[in-house]
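Supplementary Methods S3. Complex input for the magnesium ion-bound model.
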Amino acid sequence: MSSDEETEEYLFKIVIIGDSAVGKSNLLSRYARNEFNMHSKATIGVEFQTQSMEIDGKEVKAQIWDTAGQERFRAVTSAYYRGAVGALIVYDITRRTTFDSVGRWLDELNTHSDTTVAKMLVGNKYDLDDIRAVSIEEGKNVAEKHGLFFMETSAKDSTNVKKAFEIIIHEIYRNIS
Ligand code: GDP
Ligand code: MG
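Predicted complex, serialized as structure tokens:
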């Protein structure tokens, strides 16, 4: 192997979408900085964080974008989706309306990106299992219907957060290699 190949790098853009307050920003801060904020407020402007991991001895950088509150106005811009190769579609397992919105978010994603985008449906706030409004089966069924990976997570207690991002990053890597 040449030294060129040894230092090969990948940069993957991943977007996080879903209704307001489902936990998108906290999933990102949990993954990228191991932080959680009980009273997080939507910040202005588009933001992303970069997280690196190694696959097959290669450095893979995931550039993960957060809507930063744009979704409140039902107007996530096309720039947000541009160049994305992965997406997490997030709902809150305690609020059915956020689950009902999944189809709309998928439509928007599909309009703005090509079909090879690796997608995962994420039911967040698993720590609130005792007040859930959407069953695991319902989540699984919708994911299966649309050909998405599926995972329930908790940004609060870290359940499956790293796993969700790593599955999507591995899938993107498989799609391009
Ligand atoms: P966003 O609007 O989708 O970015 O949602 P935020 O990340 O700002 O989170 C909205 C609210 O839900 C905040 O009060 C968070 O503290 C809370 N939250 C986010 N993730 C979780 C979680 O996994 N469990 C619980 N119990 N609360 C969460
Ligand atoms: Mg947010």
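Helices lie at 3-6, 24-33, 78-81, 96-100, 102-112, 136-146, 161-176. Residues 85 and 117 are 5 Å apart (CA to CA).
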